[in-house]
Structures are given as structure tokens and as C-alpha cells.
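pls ignore typos typing on phone
flavin-adenine dinucleotide + seq
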Amino acid sequence: MNQSRRDLLKASGIGAAALALGGVAATSASAAENPAAATELLPKPTGKRVVIVGGGWGGLTAARYIKKEAPEAEVVVLEKRDVFVSCPISNEWLAGEIPLDFLTRDYFTAAKNYGYKMIQTTVTGIDRASRTVSTTTGSIGYDYLLLSPGIAYDYTKWFGNDTLAAERCRQECPPALMSGSEHVALKKMLEDFEGGNFVISVPDGPYRCPPAPYERAAMVAHYFKKNGIEGKVIILDPKGKPAPKGPGFLAAYKELYPDIVEYRPSSLVKTVDLDKKEVVVTVTHPDDRTEEVRIPYAAANLMPVNKASEIVAMAGVSTGKAGWGMMNSPTFQSKADERVFVIGDAVGGYPYPKSGAIANSQGRIVATHIAGLIQGRPALANMTLPDNICYSMVNGEEAISIGVTFSLMDDKDVNGNDIKVIKPKMTENNTRSTALGKTTHEWYKGMMRDIFGS
Ligand SMILES: Cc1cc2nc3c(=O)[nH]c(=O)nc-3n(C[C@H](O)[C@H](O)[C@H](O)COP(=O)(O)OP(=O)(O)OC[C@H]3O[C@@H](n4cnc5c(N)ncnc54)[C@H](O)[C@@H]3O)c2cc1C
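k done
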């Protein structure tokens, strides 16, 4: 191991056990072969310890602010990836408008700047009874556990239990709702595209970043237009119209890409014929008649049903087939265990969109709760609700936007009892402009400064 890496790990306080294991994500096989994997990742802290699973938008925000509000606590982030690559703004990178550097950050600098510990490892189990998280490189105890592990894909509606077909689809028609090889493969697909149909499907049910597929379609069309590529971008949407920012997207498709983008509403992907390169779609007509159509593709970006990362079920705080974390609304504290919190895209049951802005906002809020619990304060008093702002680029310069605030309102349940419900208030700006395009980048840079300090 070179000197600088040793110093870095020493400075970050990562213990001998983690160092002995390379301090990086080992595979299950190497963990199984190495008895040290059963050892503790870190020595026991003198005070309280908060373990955060997932170093993404929600997890890293919470790490920063817990440490700020309760500096006496030890905050440890467990993250399986080696480098942070942002999904927000990635559609611009896809279309060649910004370099990859703009999307990437290292995990070490933020941990050092904000005083939390970062361990690159993959979480494999959570035992709430003993308050222990197991990973491929060792285990770690916690006083409070915060999960922000994001989403997973559910291909069963398209391929049943055929996991090989599901994986083939993920690789050949990458959904690119998670950063990494899927994004890079999609970009290569676009750069190699020589004409024909470029099919983009919108997921059925709640999914990560509702405007992302519509923005991606616009940016792919922008790439075609800029590079003189003869091709069609076909958007298959199970909904009747794009949402959010529907009028803005439809205007952009019509005015900027009239011969390129074809938006097909009420078109639900039934399955994919990967050998013939055809998407099989059930179209529901306005008179409720349904029809099955086959759409050939030269390239496809097919986004399946989303579900919560398996981490939420691992902790035993998930609900339903999709496994979203079910919290005591309006807090992010688990219904099953007051020491466990879930934020970000893995949460269900709230009217919150699955966005980075919301995950960041939730990270700040949950940090206050957890810091309060650590310091013996009434943590959940004076509840603040998260808010959301989201910009979508429609070409190399212009964007549209939506802002959402939430408030706790009085309501009645089915039995007529008084209850409080969270209600959204949305403000859409569907008039595309270069000013909003500039604000998009300012927003993103502000988020990166907040989460990473640079
Ligand atoms: C194309 C696209 C564009 C988008 N644009 C926007 C936008 O403009 N604005 C906006 O607000 N949002 C946008 N989003 C949405 C945003 O990226 C997500 O909502 C946000 O990342 C959610 O944060 P999170 O913390 O819940 O999950 P993530 O940021 O995904 O973080 C989860 C982390 O958990 C880690 N993890 C998972 N399992 C394990 C394990 N077993 N062990 C260890 N680590 C694990 C993952 O590696 C990951 O780093 C966009 C998304 C996409 C796909």
C-alpha cells in the first residue's frame, strides 16, 4: 500500500481491521475466504455512533449535517462504490454537453472536510436486535442507523422469474437510472447510433426522477440534431401525458424536434423480444380498447418498474412488493424501530418525488432528528418538511423547471377522525429559457458544494 493511501485511511480513523482487508469493497468470496471479515470494521467509539448505508445524495448530506449538529457522535458512511457519479445532469453528459468530471466527486475529501468516516464496502445484512450491520469486509455496531440506499430494478413484469433475460435486457437496453456501466453503455450506444428507432420507455409506477426519461429523450434528440443523425426517438409512456412539466416537454418535442421525437402515451411495455430487438407494448386507446404492438429498435433505453434497494428489506422496515421504507409520517423514523431511519428514493408512502433535491432536503431534516436524539432533545418537535426543485434541460442551453413545497394539512381519515396529511404545492415553469439552463448548473454546483464541500 502506498504511503498516501495509508495516511488517508489513518487520518480518516479507519481501523486496523479495515486496513487489513484493503479498506475497499471486497467480494463476498474474498470475505468468505478471509476470517477477518467477521471482525469489527472500527473500534468501539466512546460516544454514540450513527451508521449510514449509502453514500449518495441523501446519505452524504445526512452525514455532513449530523456531524455538524452532533460533533461528539461518530458518523460512519458505508458505500459500495469507489467514486461518486451524479445522476442529475447526466443526461447533458450523455448528449456530449458536459465532461464526466462535472459529474464525479471523490468520497474522501468530503469525509475529511466534514469529519465523518467513509468506508468502501458492500452491506450484506442488518441485525436490528444486536444493532449490527454486516458487510463484505467486516461488521459494525450502531446506536442509530440511517438507510439511504436508493432504488433497485424489478424486471418480473417483463420476464417473470427469468433473471438471465432480465440481466440481458439491463445490459443490452440499459435503463441508466443508476450511475456506472449503465450510463457509459448508453452513451456508447448513442455515439454508435447510425439510424432507426431509439426507444426510451418510462417506468410504470413510482420511479427515480419522474422527469428524467422525458429530459433524456430531449437530449438524445438534441444529439441527433446536432450531429445530423437520421433517427427517431420514440418515448413509450404508460401515462396519458408526460408528467411533471408535461406542457414544457411536449412543446420542446414539437418545436425543437418535430421530425425526431415521437411521444406515445398510454403505451405500457409488456415484454422485450431481445433476439428480434422489438419492444412489445400494450397500447390503451382513448375508448379503452387495448392493442398489442411491436416496436423495432436499433437502440433502446428501457426503464423497468422501480423498487427499493434490498437494504430496506434487510433491515426489516420495508412494506409491500416494492419494499419501500415505511416511516412514521412526517418523520423518517421507522415504524418498526425508533433507531432506524430511511430517506431518499427508498422511502414510500409520502407524496415526495424520488429526487436528489428531496434526498438532500430529507438528509438535513433527519440529521436534526438524529442529532436531537443523540443529545437527548425532543428530536421530532417542530417538524420541517422537505422541498423539491427540479430543472430539466431540453437542449444544450435551455431548461424548464418545477418547484414543490409540502405542508401538513388537517384532514379526515375514512372513519372521520382528524388526521394530518402532507400535501404538495407545485409551481411549474414550462417556458424553456437559457436563464433556466444557467440556473440548472448553478443549482447542481450548489448541491455539490453542500454535499461535498466543492
Ligand atoms: C438520469 C437522471 C437524472 C436525474 N436528474 C435529477 C435532477 O435533475 N434533480 C434531482 O433532484 N434528482 C435527479 N435525479 C434523481 C436522483 O439521482 C436521485 O433521486 C438521488 O440520487 C436519490 O438519492 P438517494 O440517496 O436516495 O440514492 P443514491 O444517490 O442512489 O445513493 C444510494 C447509494 O447507496 C449505495 N448502496 C446501495 N446498496 C448498497 C449496499 N448494499 N452497500 C453499500 N452501499 C450501497 C449506492 O451505491 C449509492 O451510492 C436524476 C436521476 C436520474 C437517473
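Residues 1-31 have pLDDT under 50 and may be disordered. The two ends are 27 Å apart (CA to CA). more later
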